[in-house]
Amino acid sequence: MANDLSQLNFFTESYPPYNYRESHELKGIAVDLLLAAVSKVDDRLDPNSIQLVPWARGYKLTLSGVNTVLFSTTRTPFREPMFEWVGPIATTRVVLFAPTAKQLKIANIEDIKKQVIGTIRDDIGEQTVLNMGVSRTQVMQAHNAHSLLYMLQRGRIDMWAYEELVGRWLIKSAAIKIDEFEAVYTLKESELYYAFSLDSDPKLRALLQLGVDRVKANIQENGLSEYQNILSKYQ
């Protein structure tokens, strides 16, 4: 059943080191895992068919179908009934970043409610703080994470809600000293998945899940699994 998975529409966002574009090429843990998983089930997928879009657009397109996959997507109870899931891709931690110089002490949700928090619309950081009871008036949205980093650096927001590893990657790539910002509070620990639209073919989901499982079980010459070697490329 070659090319079955190519029937799906794959969307991703710039979310390094999980998925991002470098020199016109898509890279990252989730991209490498996806392509390796497809190869393990004797299927094919053109990497150029994966579309890099803003998160909010990919999220909306996957919610409405048709035969759509969005990654890397944090799996949460809120999102559980909205998608079908294949994975996991990796563990994830969503935190609140703040300038180290401000020495913010965040102990609970009441402390968070006093701050202006930067988010991306429909991102897990935004959904988490809103579900915790933070007012929308305390949330300032941006189209991308680079804009939020800029806003945080210039004091337009007090904190930035985002995945920790991705946030640190972006800080480093912006040539900012990593110790200028600190994670002051952990919002959620979870796992990243490939989120399928509800109308997607269960046979295709099962096929990709089989491929992911085979990548994780495949022990290579250095004694590590193929999956562990993918992770190590981006650490």
Assign the structural class, choosing from mainly alpha, mainly beta, alpha/beta, alpha+beta, or little secondary structure. alpha/beta
Mean pLDDT: 95
Number of helices: 8
Spatially, the strands of the biggest sheet line up as: 4-1-5-10-6-9-7-8
Helix content: 25-40%
Largest sheet: 8 strands, mixed
This entry's quaternary arrangement is single chain
Beta-strand fraction estimate: 25-35%
Got a strand count?
10
Alpha-carbon Rg, integer? 18 Å
Question: What is the general shape?
Answer: globular
Element order, helices and strands? EEEHEHEEHEHEHEHEHH
Low-confidence stretches: none
Write a short abstract of this structure.
By secondary structure, the chain is of the alpha/beta class. The protein has helices at residues 29-40, 55-63, 109-112, 124-131, 145-153, 164-173, 202-217, 226-233, and strands at 9-12, 20-22, 25-27, 51-52, 68-74, 84-99, 117-120, 139-142, 159-163, 181-196.
Q: If you had to describe this structure to a student in words, what would you say it looks like?
A:
It contains eight helices and ten strands. It has helices at 29-40, 55-63, 109-112, 124-131, 145-153, 164-173, 202-217, 226-233; strands at 9-12, 20-22, 25-27, 51-52, 68-74, 84-99, 117-120, 139-142, 159-163, 181-196. The protein has an eight-stranded mixed beta sheet with strand order 4-1-5-10-6-9-7-8, with helices on both faces. A hairpin with a 2-residue loop joins strand 2 and strand 3. The longest helix has 16 residues, at 202-217. The radius of gyration is 18 Å and the shape is globular. 40% of the residues are buried. The mean pLDDT is 95.
